[in-house]
Write a structure and sequence with these properties.
Helix content: 55-70%
Number of helices: 4
CATH architecture: Roll
Strand order of the largest sheet: 1-2
Number of domains: 1
Strand content: 5-15%
Number of strands: 2
Length: 87
């Protein structure tokens, strides 16, 4: 559960700085896109759909969890497939 929450926090951290930097300039489209990322993340985790989870990550993604960095889509996939609690 802690790893799941850690991954969720990491995803949120990727989006929050861009939204927090310009609080008066939030567009409905940006908020809708962020909301959809959250929906996909929860759907992928709850259904254990690794392909759906990986659709959230770019090929050159870096995911840092517990001080360990997973670089590239293959390593991120490996993290969710072998380490992350929901999968």
């Amino acid at each position: 559960m802690i790893r799941y929450l850690s991954a969720l926090a990491t995803l949120a951290a990727l989006w929050v700085p861009s939204v927090a930097a310009a609080p008066n300039e939030e567009s409905p489209a940006d908020l809708f896109a962020l909301h959809n990322v959250e929906i996909v993340f929860h759907q992928a985790a709850s259904t254990k759909d690794l392909s759906l989870m990986m659709s959230l990550f770019a090929d050159d993604a870096t995911l840092t969890v517990g001080g360990k960095a997973y670089t590239g889509k293959d390593q991120v996939r490996s993290y969710f497939a072998t380490v992350a609690a929901p999968f």
